[in-house]
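Field log, afternoon session.

UNIT: design team B
ACTIVITY: writing a sequence onto a fixed backbone
BACKBONE:
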């Protein structure tokens, strides 16, 4: 976007099916040997990061059909998530039904999308819920992502964490959201962090690996940058902000720092790495803020589901509500857009 233009943003997307298939997998990140000189001397200016993040939602806005286009793309990037202790196969099946048809049929028709109705980016569940999700999504092309490696703390022994990855893949997961061992970041033990993530990457086989940094536990943006870089060097295909269980989850300054690390890694290796904010994103306004961040920092390719995901569920109801308002000019009660 032109940073000097404060007018309403022109759409980076149109309200038509994505130019890249929603579930086209991104090429795997082969990783590189641990290179601490890529990040040893890095400095991150907290106040500058906060100022940059604060301008994202104030300088430019998307209105009317442009906003609708952005919101359709946002829902295509959602990892619809069920990570509660009382999850059941029935609840996961209902979630998968919503994943297949995230918008009501009348909204889909009014947007001109009846020939190719949008679906979400993936469904994310615990390993024991992978099989019911795979069965419920059969034929849809929507991948099943599984958290693993002792989610959310990541403090179980490494062999058990690796076994959990293998179990989820055997059950049919196509993506694995692992959690890093935060103490290795806090103690700057980069070799240990690299070795563990590399072992998890190997255990994933053909499945894509998303490395959750749990940034709210990492204390500084410098630690966030370094953990991002080590995870990518070890072969992570995505870097993800949070488990959603920390006191502080996804924020724009943290996301900006991770995107700068992602961009730096791409410039050194030529490999595109995906990004997933998770935790605390609840509204359509949040979706627009993060889409704007992706567009301005990384460009158009990172507005596709193979490089951008949003870890959220409650956000979907608000997106559907905003799209109904675009069509009818009226806001419906939230219970008119049940999540599942």
């Amino acid at each position: 976007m032109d940073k000097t233009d404060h007018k309403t943003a022109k759409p980076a997307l149109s309200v038509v099916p994505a130019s890249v298939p929603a579930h086209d997998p991104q090429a795997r990140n082969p990783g590189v040997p641990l290179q601490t000189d890529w990040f040893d001397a890095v400095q991150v200016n907290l106040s500058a990061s906060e100022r940059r993040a604060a301008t994202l939602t104030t300088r430019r806005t998307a209105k009317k059909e442009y906003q609708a286009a952005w919101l359709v793309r946002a829902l295509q990037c959602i990892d619809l998530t069920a990570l509660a202790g009382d999850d059941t196969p029935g609840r996961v099946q209902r979630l998968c039904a919503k994943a297949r048809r995230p918008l009501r049929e009348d909204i889909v028709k009014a947007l001109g999308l009846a020939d190719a109705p949008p679906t979400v980016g993936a469904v994310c569940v615990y390993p024991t819920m992978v099989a019911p999700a795979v069965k419920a999504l059969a034929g849809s092309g929507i991948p099943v992502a599984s958290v693993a490696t002792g989610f959310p703390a990541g403090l179980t022994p490494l062999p058990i964490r690796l076994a959990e990855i293998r179990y989820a893949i055997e059950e049919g997961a196509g993506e694995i959201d692992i959690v890093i061992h935060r103490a290795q970041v806090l103690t700057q033990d980069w070799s240990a962090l690299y070795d563990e993530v590399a072992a998890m990457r190997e255990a994933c086989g053909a499945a894509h690996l998303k490395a959750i940094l749990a940034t709210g536990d990492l204390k500084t943006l410098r630690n966030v940058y370094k953990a991002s870089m080590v995870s990518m060097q070890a072969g992570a295909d995505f870097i993800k902000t949070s488990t959603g269980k920390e006191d502080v989850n996804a924020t724009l300054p943290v996301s900006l720092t991770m995107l700068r690390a992602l961009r730096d890694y791409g410039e050194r290796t030529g490999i595109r790495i995906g990004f997933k904010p998770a935790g605390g994103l609840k509204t359509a306004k949040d979706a627009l803020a993060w889409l704007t961040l992706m567009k301005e920092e990384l460009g158009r390719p990172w507005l596709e589901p193979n490089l951008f995901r949003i870890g959220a569920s409650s956000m979907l109801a608000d997106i559907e509500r905003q799209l109904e308002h675009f069509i009818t000019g009226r806001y419906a009660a939230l219970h008119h857009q049940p999540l599942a």
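LOG NOTE: The first strand starts at residue 78 and ends at 82.
NEXT ACTIVITY: expression trials, pending approval
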